[in-house]
Write a structure and sequence with these properties.
Strand content: 5-15%
Number of strands: 8
Distance between the termini: 39 Å
CATH topology: Arginase, Chain A
Helix content: 25-40%
CATH architecture: 3-Layer(aba) Sandwich
Order of helices and strands: EHHEHHHHEHEHEEHEHEHHH
CATH class: Alpha Beta
Shape: globular
CATH superfamily: Histone deacetylase domain
Structural class: alpha/beta
Largest sheet: 8 strands, parallel
Strand order of the largest sheet: 2-1-3-8-7-4-5-6
Oligomer: single chain
Radius of gyration: 20 Å
Length: 388
């Protein structure tokens, strides 16, 4: 159905968090993080007719209430972040990751980070109140920020704050956090390492070859949270087939057994084949499968942007994710006429969908071997805890 045919169809509301002004915030010409990915996603969703259905709401973020920052972050760090300026970076700020190449101090970065976190918080609040069934904040997903320091382009951990807020309102809530970014979600792992109410799952390139050099399968939680942190490190060259081992043999069975009331999904696209900062070889077919399977387990999903440094391919992938969250099919009425080359190579003009791709030879064999080894470890050490 087209949007105009859906006027009388009752659907649960979905939320797309978006700010045009935020999307053009500049971290510097040499900085890899480009918020404009959100603008490109919004434009592509509009072009493909998946943004104008009556149940969809565009939510412009407001700054996160200051009192919520302390749910995860240390006051001393927040004070430094708030007062940091471009022309005054002192040793204490550098100790806390502020003023580094990854986390530069630029005018407005504190306010921008509050808006990004505010968007995630508002989306979570709408879902918690039953006002929306799913939401996507492409300007959120800062999973590396720690309580007392910034790292990995992340200043404020909107994910940890939103989950802690939700648990504060409903202490018995069960939340599955599923991180598909190529980089290990170390900040979120830190937040819930001892909490059995949150099943933290991260699929990422192995810490032997990629920042943040963590997320090994032996990191499984502590105390009451033992077995509720699940890491699946993947070898460079991992393609859709190898990724399928992680999803089918460990991630999906665990999430089904956990039966979450809500899923928070970090759908950073750094694992895509053309990403300049990682070494995976995924197509957006893997991301589509993951989002579809999550929805089949739990329709309440808060999706967040995170990484992804091929801007155009990331925009295509996120457009597909938003389509899946809304059960609609994208359709490009202008295929081959405008903008095709901006969003992928020539052979993919007019389509959001990636062609299948498979790695070969020793790289593929090693990736498969390691994936099956990690799957075996998780099945032996973690499955029994969840009665899988």
């Amino acid at each position: 159905m087209r949007p105009e045919e859906q006027d009388n169809v009752s659907r649960e509301e979905t939320i797309f968090v978006y700010s045009d002004e935020m999307s053009w915030f500049d971290f510097g010409s040499d900085h890899p993080f480009k918020p404009e990915r959100a603008a490109k996603t919004y434009d592509l969703c509009t072009r493909y007719g998946v943004m104008n259905y009556p149940w969809m709401k565009i939510l412009e973020p407001e700054a996160l209430p200051i009192n919520l920052l302390s749910l995860f972050h240390e006051s001393a760090y927040l004070e430094l972040l708030q007062k940091a300026t471009e022309d005054k970076v002192d040793p204490e700020m550098l100790k806390r990751g502020l003023g580094t190449l990854d986390n530069p101090i630029i005018t407005g970065v504190y306010e921008w980070s509050l808006l990004a976190a505010g968007g995630t918080h508002a989306a979570m609040d709408h879902i918690m109140k039953g006002e929306a069934v799913a939401a996507f904040n492409p300007l959120g997903g800062f999973h590396h920020a720690m309580p007392g320091h910034a790292e990995g382009f992340c200043y404020i951990n909107d994910i940890a704050i939103a989950i802690m807020y939700a648990l504060g309102r409903m202490p018995d809530l069960k939340i599955a956090y599923i991180d598909l970014d190529a980089h290990h979600g170390n900040g979120v792992q830190n937040a819930f390492y001892q909490d059995p109410r949150v099943l933290v799952i991260s699929l990422h390139e192995t810490g032997r070859t990629l920042y943040p050099w963590s997320g090994f399968e032996t990191e499984t939680g502590e105390g009451d949270g033992k077995g509720f942190t699940v890491n699946f490190p993947l070898e460079p060259g991992t393609d859709d087939e190898v990724y399928g081992v992680a999803l089918e043999e460990t991630v999906l069975p665990l999430v089904r057994s956990f039966l979450p009331d809500l899923i928070v999904a970090e759908i950073g696209d750094g694992a895509l084949i053309s990403d300049p900062r990682t070494h995976h070889k995924l197509t957006n077919n893997s991301y589509q499968k993951a989002v579809k399977e999550m929805m089949a387990i739990c329709p309440k999903i808060l999706a967040l942007g995170g990484g992804g440094y091929d801007l155009y391919r990331t925009a295509r992938c996120w457009t597909l994710a938003w389509s899946i969250l809304n059960h609609v099919e994208p359709e490009d009425e202008f295929a081959g006429l405008v903008g095709g080359m901006m969003f992928g190579p020539e052979k993919e003009v007019g389509s959001l969908y990636d062609h299948p791709y498979h790695t070969e030879g020793e790289v593929k064999e090693n990736a498969f071997k390691e994936a099956r080894r990690v799957a075996g470890f998780i099945q032996k050490e973690i499955f029994p805890i969840h009665k899988v």
